[in-house]
From TrEMBL:
InterPro entries: HhH2 (IPR008918), XPG-I_dom (IPR006086), XPG/Rad2 (IPR006084), XPG_DNA_repair_N (IPR006085). It is found in: Nucleus. This is Flap endonuclease GEN-like 1. Its cofactor is Mg(2+). One of its GO terms (molecular function) is DNA binding. It comes from Arabidopsis thaliana x Arabidopsis arenosa. Keywords: DNA damage, DNA repair, Endonuclease, Hydrolase, Magnesium, Metal-binding, Nuclease, Nucleus. Residues 1-96 form the XPG N-terminal domain. One of its GO terms (biological process) is pollen development. Pfam families: XPG_I, XPG_N. Residues 128-198 form the XPG-I domain. Belongs to the XPG/RAD2 endonuclease family. GEN subfamily. Its main location: nucleus.
Length: 431
């Protein structure tokens, strides 16, 4: 899910359409849970163990056709906050009154169901036999993907969770189909910053307002458009503190300010006495005065011209009057919004903020990534046992990956030794 309220629609105008060559020689972090769920949805009921089958094909295509260096990330223990939000979302989708929602004890997480954990385990076994690095996050997989990206260990993250940006990701590929040549959407944080003026903490603030994986409800009555207007009023360094003030019932100082309108009303009253406007032409002066000595703004020899539909007087009073009306409109909007936020319980939730700003891994985890050569013999045994494939079919499907490894080593070392080694192993395991 990630950030709620159709958040991806807000970002879509800033997506870059990239071809499959974009990932060549790039390291990419893949949220394995996303792939498994996607696989199960795509071919469920049609093939045996779809998660294992499609992970096999997609990984080989990503590695050989796209030329990428994938590293897969699996979820660790989920936050108790996410477990609570997941139960709440289930209650709402099932039409169950959320008043009956069970409360999860502090520090207690609800693990995924056993079947899904078994799917993850099988995919990890497959990936390791393919020689692909697999990392386990302390918490959310997208958090670890994001940190790998922000610290420069990978060039992009492949995940549909928009909260990857909140965890610090710089480049997010929402979805990619390794068996397709169609362009895919690639989102860069730099583009979001230049286009919307939003940085990481702005996005965290928006998620607190519209909902996220840890609080699916957000603030009642505030959607993406309102949240965007709110967070843009503050710099990245102050936005979270200002939200905390608003949550306490304080009114912030914004551009134009939330001011008392007493001064404005007094100004209007005084200026109306000194500066009457003609009811016929709308300019300064009375109608009687204009008929006696004409209107200097209308340019007539006598009298004045009837004002056209939609006429706007540009005198200093009218300009100031419009400014005050717009100010009052802005003030009323801010007062209503701040009141809504102040009514939200425990807003903003500091635990959620800390989750988004915390690190998901240690530096050693990222620097230890390495890509090896597939264990052909073990892979054949695994796929024959799990998917009932013919051994020759497994070897045939592995050939593009083995060829890519050979060509990379050939280019790196400028030697033909590896060709002999790989072919020898391949022939031996085929025998």
């Amino acid at each position: 899910m990630g950030v709620g309220g159709n958040f991806w629609d807000l970002l879509r105008p800033y997506a870059r359409q990239q071809g499959f060559d974009y990932l060549r020689n790039k390291r990419v972090a893949v949220d394995l849970s996303f792939w498994i769920v996607q696989h199960e949805t795509a071919v469920k009921g049609f093939v045996l163990k779809p998660h294992l089958r499609l992970t096999f094909f997609r990984t080989i295509n990503l590695f050989s056709k796209f030329g990428a260096y994938p590293v897969f990330v699996v979820d660790g223990t989920p936050s108790p906050l996410k477990s609570q939000a997941r139960i709440s979302r289930f209650f709402r989708s099932s039409g169950i009154d959320t008043c009956n929602l069970p409360v999860i004890k502090d520090g207690v997480s609800v693990e995924r169901n056993k079947l899904f954990c078994e799917w993850v385990k099988e995919c990890v076994e497959l990936l390791e036999l393919l020689g692909i690095p697999v990392l386990k996050a302390n918490g959310e997989a997208e958090a670890l993907c994001a940190q790998l990206n922000s610290e420069g260990y990978v060039d992009a993250c492949i995940t549909p969770d928009s909260d990857a940006f909140l965890f610090g990701a710089k480049c997010v590929i929402k979805d990619i189909k390794p068996n397709s040549r169609e362009p895919f959407e690639c989102y860069h944080m730099s583009d979001i910053d230049s286009g919307l003026g939003l940085k990481r903490k702005h996005l965290i603030a928006m998620s607190l307002l519209v909902g996220n994986d840890y609080d699916s409800g957000g603030v009642l009555g505030i959607g993406v458009d309102k949240a965007l207007r709110i967070v843009r009023e503050f710099s990245e360094n102050e936005i979270l503190e200002r939200l905390q003030d608003i949550g306490k019932g304080l009114k912030p100082t914004v551009s134009g300010g939330i001011k008392s309108v007493d001064d404005g009303e007094e100004f209007r009253s005084e200026m109306k006495k000194r500066s009457p406007h003609c009811s016929r032409c709308g300019h300064l002066g009375s109608k009687r005065t204009h008929f006696k000595s004409s209107c200097e703004h209308c340019g007539c020899d006598s009298g004045c011209i009837k004002k056209p539909l939609g006429f706007r007087c540009e005198c200093s009073f009218c300009s100031k009057d419009r400014e005050l009306k717009e100010q009052k409109k802005t003030d009323d909007w801010w007062i209503k919004v701040c009141d809504k936020i102040a009514l939200a319980p425990e807003f903003p939730n500091r635990k959620i903020i800390e989750l988004y700003l915390s690190d998901g891994l240690t530096t050693e985890d990222g620097s230890s990534m390495s890509w090896g050569t597939p264990d052909t013999g073990m892979l054949v045994d695994l796929m024959v046992f799990k998917l009932h494939w013919d051994p020759s079919y497994v070897r045939k499907m592995l050939l593009p990956m083995l060829s890519t490894i050979y060509l990379r080593e050939k280019a790196r070392n400028n030697t033909g030794t590896l060709c002999y080694v790989i072919n020898t192993n391949f022939i031996q395991s085929s025998a």
